[in-house]
Write a structure and sequence with these properties.
The complex is a heterodimer. By secondary structure, chain A is α/β, with parallel strands linked by helices. Chain A is built from nine helices and ten strands. The radius of gyration of chain A is 18 Å and the shape is globular. Chain B folds into three domains: 54 residues; 248 residues, no CATH class; 266 residues, no CATH class. In chain B, helix 4 packs across helix 11, helix 7 crosses helix 8 and helix 16 packs parallel to helix 20. The longest helix of chain B is centred in the C-terminal third of the chain and has 39 residues. Classes of the chains: A alpha/beta, B mainly alpha.
Chain lengths: 243, 619
């Protein structure tokens, strides 16, 4: 479970995230969308413990990310938008390292399974410099899933992927949620969010604008047609349709 | 057009200064700036203490006199020889051919714009100037020139020297870039011509140097023990008398002329003669600039590739993909999935330096050394014993002090991968310890290799397999009231804990500095070595050295206090049997400093907010 209560993140007095609250239940996939500079990346970075929050509380499976940081991070996996991998480690080295960091049982079988699923098994001896951006993205996702996290946070997971890889990642995310993991996805690919997320949160200027299932947010945003898709809802909710 | 490019340059410098000033709003950086500024101020002004306020804060007059005399001439000749050898190697070895450095935005904006190629290269050349000027300013402080005019002479001379160095590096890079564009046969013929010229230069240098050396050793050396200063002066005078009129000096005249403004300025300040010394270096500078800006090499593609490489922060990875399949399977040591997670970071960081299994990495040079050791045992090169022992001592002494600084397989590399590192399930102190472990392990392996060399050579001497060895050993054993056979094991037992804490201290300081001031510490493994960075590196090196010696002080004081009480107060002579205990006594207080640094580093990691320094622009 991922729980965010009244999260505030300020940079030099500017509030990038301004009192955001969010709950992702086990087995649920929640989509976090918003225009550029809305505070999505700041929220995810605070959630993953990469940057400290200015105020508010974040808990992963009941563990506070500040007070019980190690226990919280043990249950968490974060997939960043830009895969900054270790250039001197091969694909298999990455998996070996993550297996030890999280003390993964049956690491060898799990590694083989995940690398096969992401079509990286044949590239297991390759260094990141030899992989395409999409392959790197798949590798970091495989590393993230190695320890069966209870909370999965994905920042723009489909960037740089080809259509087949996109489908594979979508299937992986759905399967992970089905296994009981709470999944939070941030993406500008609204079609993806619409397709896989059970609930959607639209934020703007650090605040939550609207939250709910697609039908709920369609009803919550005024002046929308009955069959409006997420793009139309998003543009209307954030006022970008007037531009 | 140059005006527009100058505008871009000035605005870039201004932007950097504003960014630096804004960073001072953070108390950490303000504190660091005050301490660092205070230290520089102290360094500059310490010459005033006890002297009149006449800006005579330079070297003592006798040193200036010596610089103007034969010692200065010998120094110029030495520098010229050094520059020739370095220059030849630099041209011959195909490393670091980067020439003009542009950022990705600069290339995308400037290349399509209607700017003459010459202007673009000139802009690339001018871009180095702010860093060169900082380097010159810092280097001038360290040289502590004499009068104000002397200071001005040093600044101008160093600026010419550094700019020339920078231009030469760029010219060399463009020359090689041009070579890559030629056909294979044309490229090879030019390359072979270059090697012939370089070989000829080295051969000429060696031959003329040998002639000077033959003449020099024909007369016995003076007695250094009676009056060392006089003896040095006599040796320098004799060397200059022989070398200054030899073909060696004639051949090196252009390089001697390049250093002449600096030597003249330091010793005599600015007068008409100094301006005359500038003519040749300035002419060479102008010629170098023309050589660079008129280059026909297609630098754009190389510069774009370099800019992309830099922006990806992935420079260290590029050497690895060329490895063979077999080498890709090598690992420093097998890593099982179960166990302490810190070991995973140790494993990863050692892999940055080498994939070769550690046992092989240690055994291979040991076996090689064993073969070398066979030579004196078999009666060949018997004099090799003492040099080998000296090499062992050097390997024992140098790595603990300096090598952890250079390896950079710790936070200095990992702070570039925060999205992974910050999400790992490790508390701050454990993370810090895991990060410093790899450089410490690598350095200790080097130090232990030094121990192996020293002990092995000592053993074959004691076993009577060779004659020789360090004569001082018996005297030392007598002084320390111990049998000579016990001396080395006892000294090694004292050395190991001391080497370990010194290495830990060095590694901890580097990492605490990286966590406390990530905006000031150069991150990543590619440490830029250029004229422009020379001064800054020197400054950081000096600052960290001072902090390191402050960290070692508790250990030194503890050992000093024990010895004072024992020898002075109780009158009990020092015994070698105490050495291991003294080593421990010295190591424990330093170990306490290391523990304090680890806790500090761990807390810094836990509280690190990398938003401004490390993650800005990565949204």
């Amino acid at each position: 479970m991922i729980q965010i209560d009244e999260l505030v993140k300020s940079y030099d007095g500017h509030r990038a995230v301004d009192g955001l609250s969010l709950l992702v239940q086990p087995g649920e996939i929640v989509g976090l969308v918003g225009p550029n500079g809305a505070g999505k990346t700041s929220t995810l970075r605070c959630l993953a413990g990469i940057i400290p929050s200015t105020d508010g509380k974040i808990a992963i499976c009941g563990h506070d990310i500040v007070d019980e940081g190690v226990a919280a991070r043990q249950q968490l996996a974060f997939v960043p938008d830009e895969p900054h991998l270790f250039d001197y480690l091969t694909v298999r080295d990455h998996m070996t390292m993550f297996a030890r960091l999280y003390n993964v049982e049956n690491a060898r079988e799990r590694t083989e399974q995940l690398l096969n699923e992401s079509a990286l098994w044949d590239r297991r001896h390759d260094f990141p410099a030899e992989l395409s951006r999409g392959m790197k993205q798949k590798l970091i996702l495989s590393c993230a899933l190695l320890h069966d996290p209870k909370a999965l946070v994905l920042d723009e997971p489909l960037t740089g992927l080809d259509p087949a890889a996109m489908r594979r990642v979508k299937r992986t995310v759905l399967a992970t949620a089905e296994a009981g993991t709470a999944v939070l996805v941030s993406s500008h690919m609204l079609q993806l969010v619409e397709e896989i997320c059970g609930r959607i949160v639209i934020i703007d200027e650090g605040n939550k604008v609207v939250e709910g299932t697609l039908d709920e947010i369609r009803d919550a945003v005024p002046d929308l047609e009955g069959d409006a898709n997420l793009e139309a809802i998003f543009l209307k909710a954030t006022g970008l349709d007037e531009e | 057009m140059l005006r527009a490019l100058s505008f871009v340059l000035v605005r870039s410098v201004r932007g950097r200064l504003v960014q630096m000033a804004r960073r001072l709003k953070d108390p950490r950086y303000l504190f660091g700036a005050v301490v660092g500024g205070g230290w520089i101020l102290f360094w500059v002004s310490r010459g005033f203490i006890g002297r009149s306020w006449n800006f005579q804060f330079g070297p003592p007059p006798e040193m200036l006199e010596a610089a103007a005399g034969p010692i200065g001439q010998a120094g110029q000749l030495g520098i010229a020889i050094f520059l020739t050898v370095i220059g030849v190697l630099w041209w011959a070895v195909p490393f670091g051919r980067n020439s003009l450095e542009f950022t990705e935005p600069e290339l995308h904006l400037l290349l399509p714009s209607p700017i003459k190629r010459r202007m673009l290269i000139q802009y690339g050349v001018l871009k180095s100037q702010p860093a060169i000027l900082i380097g010159v300013a810092i280097s001038s402080f360290f040289m502590r020139p004499g009068t104000l005019l002397g200071s001005a002479a040093v600044v101008v001379s160093l600026w010419i020297f550094f700019t020339l160095w920078d231009l030469h590096a760029k010219g060399r890079g463009l020359w090689y870039a041009r070579l890559d564009e030629m056909s294979r046969s044309a490229s090879w013929s030019k390359q072979i011509l270059l090697w012939v010229v370089l070989f000829g230069v080295l051969l000429g240098l060696a031959w003329s140097g040998f002639q000077v050396a033959l003449e020099f050793v024909a007369v016995p050396l003076p007695d250094f023990e009676t009056d060392t200063g006089e003896a040095f002066l006599e040796v320098a005078e004799r060397f200059v008398a022989i070398a200054w009129t030899s073909p060696l000096a004639w051949a090196l005249t252009p390089l001697i002329w390049l250093t002449r403004p600096l030597v003249y300025g330091v010793s005599r300040g600015i007068d008409f003669g100094w301006f005359a010394t500038l003519i040749f270096p300035v002419a060479i500078l102008i010629a170098h600039n023309e050589w660079v800006v008129r280059s026909q090499a297609r630098f754009e593609e190389t510069a774009l590739a370099q800019a992309k490489k830099r922006s990806k922060d992935a420079t260290e990875g590029m050497n690895f993909w060329r490895r063979t399949r077999a080498r890709r399977n090598w690992v420093a040591f097998p890593l099982r999935a179960a166990g302490r997670p810190e070991v995973a970071l140790l494993w990863k960081n050692i892999m940055l330096v080498q994939r070769l299994p550690l046992i092989i990495a240690f055994a291979w040079p040991s076996a090689l050394f064993g073969l070398v050791l066979l030579l004196p045992i078999m009666g060949f090169i018997p004099w090799l014993v003492v040099p080998l022992q000296v090499v062992g001592l050097i390997i024992m002494a140098i790595p603990p002090l300096f090598n952890a600084r250079a390896s950079r397989n710790d936070f200095r590399g990992d702070l570039l991968r925060l999205e992974i590192m910050r999400t790992l399930p490790l508390g701050g102190v454990r993370m810090f310890v895991a990060e410093v472990a790899a450089p410490v392990v690598m350095v200790m392996l080097q130090a232990l290799f030094g121990v192996l060399i020293f002990v092995s050579v000592d053993a074959i001497v004691e076993l009577g397999l060779v004659t020789g060895g360090m004569e001082v050993k018996q005297d030392l054993a007598d002084y320390l009231n111990v049998h000579r056979l016990a001396l080395v094991p006892l000294a090694i037992a004292a050395y190991v804990p001391v080497a370990l804490v010194v290495t830990l201290l060095t590694a901890c300081l580097e990492n605490v500095a990286a966590l406390a001031f990530p905006g000031w510490v150069q991150l990543g493994t590619a440490k830029k070595q250029a004229a422009a960075k020379f001064g800054q590196h020197m400054l950081v090196f000096m600052a960290l050295s001072i902090v390191m010696f402050a960290g070692l002080l508790p250990g030194v004081l503890t050992v000093g206090a024990i010895l004072a009480v024992q020898v002075l107060a109780w009158g009990a002579p020092l015994s070698a049997w105490e050495l291991p205990l003294l080593g421990l006594a010295g190591a424990l207080p330093v170990g306490a400093v290391v523990v304090a640094l680890a806790i500090l580093g761990g807390n810094l990691w836990d509280r690190l907010d990398p938003s401004a320094e490390l993650l800005a622009g990565r949204n």
